Amino acid sequence: MIEVRLFATFREGRQKITFLEAGQFQTAAQVIDYFHIPHEEVAICLINGRHSRLDASVKDEDVLALFPPVGGG
Amino acid sequence: MQTAYNGKIARINLSTGEIRVEELNMDLARKFIGGRGLGTKMLYDEGIATVDPLSEDNKLIYITGAMTGTKTPTSGRYMVVTKSPLTGMIASSNSGGVWGAKLKYAGWDAIIVEGKAKTPVYINVVDDKIEILPADEYVGMMSEEIDEKLKKVHEKCSVLNIGPAGEKLSLLAAIMNDKDRAAGRSGVGAVMGSKNLKAITATATKSSIESYDPEALQEVTKGCLKAIKENGVTGGGLPTYGTAVLVNIINNTGAFPTRNWQESYYEEADDTSGESLKDQYLVKQSFCHRCPIGCGRVINVEGKVAGGPEYEPLWAYGGNCGINDLNAINTANYWCNEYGLDAISTPCTIAAAMELYEKGLIKEEECEGVPLKWGNAEAIIEWTKRMGESEIPLARLMAQGSYRLCEYYGHPEISMSVKKQEMPAYDARAIQGIGITYATSNRGGCHVRGYLISPEILGLPQQLDRTETEGKALWTKIFQDLTAVIDSMGLCLFTSFALGAPEYAAMLNAGTGTSYTAEELLEVGERIYNIERLFNKAAGMKPEDDRLPKRLTEQPIPDGPSKGQVSQISITLPEYYKVRGWENAFPTEETLARLGL
């Protein structure tokens, strides 16, 4: 399974955490499409805590964390 | 020539009661801008580096930025510059709200407070009139109450004050203004307390500031406002969630120091996140003077509607103490504001005390009924109050900060501090660049002297690999220099998510009549960073003070997304000194000559 964690405004109308069958998704972009999130709204895509491009591949047991633009200090 | 400077400083001697009006040195203003830069230069020239910080020889400079009070976005900030009793080095703590703008509108660029009053006093500024008044009836009062009381005495004033923590000379004491805004760091509130100065009220008839080229300023302001509104962070993330939105992202990168930095991933972090705060406690946003962002949180806490926590206390009281009780964190943060305590260093000291307790170094009987156990929600509230009161022995010790606490128990390495000031909420083992900022910050452990989190985590202005060391020294220098400029202009650092050096140069030039290019402005920032370092050198700083706690270089992160990582500061620090033109932590003669110092 791939664990997908959504944050901030991405949670509106969606679950915080979703588990997806790994075999159905090859890239982070395909996972993002599953949630109907426009790619340009994804400011930060973490795969297992590392910043990744949307075309990065995903595999079983990966944790994908998606954020819109956020900041602070 | 009309500019955004008033051209006027008040020098107030509390020992003699003398109040003198002095002209602002315009040559220095151009070289050091205002706020943090000019304040540090003034303090350095007055020979304060070698004095005892809590003696009457120390001075407090409350100084506005060059653009404070102008129509530029976020122009409400002021800086408190003094010698820190916590670090023994330069302190420059800044705050928003409206007090800084009111002081500027009253006609002053800065107030220098010297000496020590025999009995508690406050200073009342009403336009060009300044008086020293008795404050006996306000002693022991919390921030909210003194704000309300003084507003009844001086209608329409803005109040800056210390709480009980400053009166009791806690080295973690903040200076508060407008109830819950804080010049929080480096113990500036203790310096105010040591002078028997409880508050400064500012009232102004005017509500605008001149500028050198009003049309140009209007044009650049319009462009900056548009950029801030359209930026995803300043126009979206910060207004909606506040700085608290960082909890989840920092935790998900495995850079969220947990249980006093023993770990760096907190399973329950989401319970204490900006998303949870918004869903459960948020009443509304709050805005500082002329702020289009509104990152401030107004929440339900302690049966009231009051200021809510930033990211830093959510982390420091939360994961760093093993606490996922958001209401307890909100409450502890509320009491930090009320007592006038630094909401970073106070919870970090509690976290250090918890580690000392869990290791058996602090004994059960010292805790007087409230054990300092990881995860004890009652402890973060009660020990915050106790630190504010400084009555019982352990609380008195804790009110001096984690370094002195841990040193007392024979384990200074448990204090997660740099230059005796507690580090903030980003693990420098997981994020290599921020470690350089921590190690070389002139005011000790601090993130807002060069916020490398922006490129290393948030991808602004571009995404850097947080685990890499290459190039980070130069990035740190540029961020530190630009930050020094923003702090000296009297603007909020958060504008830099949307703006860059060219926009700041355009604002400053239109406001003050300078003609800086972006590159020249960064060199002014470099000059400011170097004058701070010269102050520290004169104060007795040693090269080994630019160091990170051993835990960060010797104990790899045990688990989570950044498992196995340590700080590579031994590689990055020499590179940093090279790009700064420093040798053994201090500027070379050549560097000083280049910067006109």
UniProtKB/TrEMBL annotation, chain B:
Can you give the residue ranges of the Aldehyde ferredoxin oxidoreductase N-terminal domain? 5-206
Q: Give the record's keywords alphabetically.
A: 4Fe-4S, Iron, Iron-sulfur, Metal-binding, Oxidoreductase
Is Oxidoreductase among the key words of this record? yes
Domain of life of the organism in this record? Bacteria
State one Pfam family annotation.
AFOR_C
Renumbered to this chain, region (Disordered) spans: 545-566
- Cofactors demanded by this protein: tungstopterin; [4Fe-4S] cluster
What InterPro entries does its record include?
Answer: Ald_Fedxn_OxRdtase_dom2 (IPR013984), Ald_Fedxn_OxRdtase_dom3 (IPR013985), Ald_Fedxn_OxRdtase_N (IPR013983), Ald_Fedxn_OxRdtase_N_sf (IPR036503), OxRdtase_Ald_Fedxn_C (IPR001203), Tungsten_al_ferr_oxy-like_C (IPR036021), W-dependent_AOR (IPR051919)
Q: Which family does it belong to?
A: Belongs to the AOR/FOR family.
Name recorded for this polypeptide? Aldehyde ferredoxin oxidoreductase family protein
Per the UniProt entry, what species is this protein from, by scientific name? Lacrimispora defluvii
